[in-house]
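B., you asked whether I could sanity-check this one before it goes into the benchmark set. Here's the sequence:
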Amino acid sequence: MSDGKRFELPVLRLSEEDQKRVRSLPTKTAPSRHPSESSHYRMAQAKLDETDARIAELTSILNTSDSRIQIRSAHSEMERLLTQRVKLLEDLKELEKY
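And here's what the prediction gave me:
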């Protein structure tokens, strides 16, 4: 069972005996990393979480406010955030391909 950790060691740093042993082993590819291990993925996910939280706040404001200025401002920010949210979801989907 793998713990998911990866290490790269130059074969030349091994003893002669260990180098022979390594050369005798079958070549395998390293296990692929899950996209969520990527710092880019984690940053995009955190930004999406922040965006979703702000959208929830704006939804509350839109449902409770009587101020036309506040409502107009909230609508404007909501449009921007929804566009940003779509872009973040696309970015995450793209990162999941790797």
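One thing to flag: DSSP finds three helices and no strands in the chain. Otherwise nothing jumped out at me.
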